[in-house]
Amino acid sequence: MPESIPILKNPHLDAMENDYLYHININVVNSRSATDIERRFGDVKFVCLGGTKNRMFALAKYLRHILQLDNGEELVDISESGNRYAVYKVGPVLCCSHGVGMSTMSVLLHELLKLVRYAKCQDPVFIRLGTSGGVGVTPGTVVISKDGYNGYLRNEHEVAILGKRVVRPANFDEKLANDLLRHAKSHCGYDVIMGNTMAAECFYEGQGRLDGASCDYSEADKMAFLQQLYEKGVRNIEMEATMFSSLTKHVGVRAADVCVTLLNRLHGDQVNLTKEQKEDFEQRPFSVVGEYIKSSLCGN
Ligand SMILES: O=P(O)(O)O[C@@H]1C[C@H](O)[C@@H](CO)O1
Ligand SMILES: O=c1cc[nH]c(=O)[nH]1
């Protein structure tokens, strides 16, 4: 497949002289030929995303090591002055924190998608490395998402635009997901599976938990809901997959969601891991995605 530069899906961008990517504090001057942005970011091939700044710092350190790009210099958060998100650049990879949930992630995603367009990146791939609640799987299992399901158990993302309900399909790139799975199976000593992912608007009631500040349903209702999810092939629940898959698909950029499960929701609601267990689990998506990136950069 020939490589291509992301075009996105907004004709107004072509008419803009400059574009200030406000939340990551990157100013794109003369956006039609932004040579400075091309020089700084034109080599980016992978944009990795995850909830927290610390995790993305750890990911950047890990990638720097396995890609043999550690020059001993301090890793710099290039968006620190934006006061919202953290962005680290490790050679051709950006590692970016997106916060909790679709609304915070979508702001960052719009700006990063525009960044790779202005920088003329060749066929960049966006990958979320997250945590999630498992549905019928052993904690620690890594789920590579096939399709995203929303809180109504529909394989779509719904967004209000100009007072109207706009519904877009929520599917991840099939080939990318299969490639990630194939690579993972060849080197991971833990379970890595393909499954559908439900993205909830809320960690508590939206994910059918019994331990939120409010809950108007019974344990039997919760279990029936989780069973319904399982029957739809959903193997994990997090808070970003539908927005992430639908926006990237809509603008023609390949994306994948690789999340470790911290618990099996069929057995409870509380996340009760030790610090060491959590670190071990969070490392798993690093290894799945890191090895994939390494082999892709080597042309395998
Ligand atoms: O990448 P993270 O671990 O932030 O993803 C999940 C989904 C929510 O953002 C958050 C809820 O605890 O964790
Ligand atoms: O159960 C969980 C665990 C992590 N993240 C979620 O969104 N849900």
UniProtKB/TrEMBL annotation:
CDD domains: UP_hUPP-like. GO terms for cellular component: cytosol. Transmembrane segments: none annotated. InterPro entries: Nucleoside_phosphorylase_d, Nucleoside_phosphorylase_sf, Uridine_phosphorylase_euk. It comes from the Eukaryota. Substrate binds at Q207, R209. One of its GO terms (biological process) is uridine catabolic process. One of its GO terms (molecular function) is uridine phosphorylase activity. Residues 45-290 form the Nucleoside phosphorylase domain. Pfam families: PNP_UDP_1. Phosphate binds at R84, R128, L129, G130, T131. Belongs to the PNP/UDP phosphorylase family. PANTHER family: FI09636P-RELATED (PTHR43691:SF11), URIDINE PHOSPHORYLASE (PTHR43691). This is Nucleoside phosphorylase domain-containing protein. The lineage of its organism: Eukaryota, Metazoa, Ecdysozoa, Arthropoda, Hexapoda.
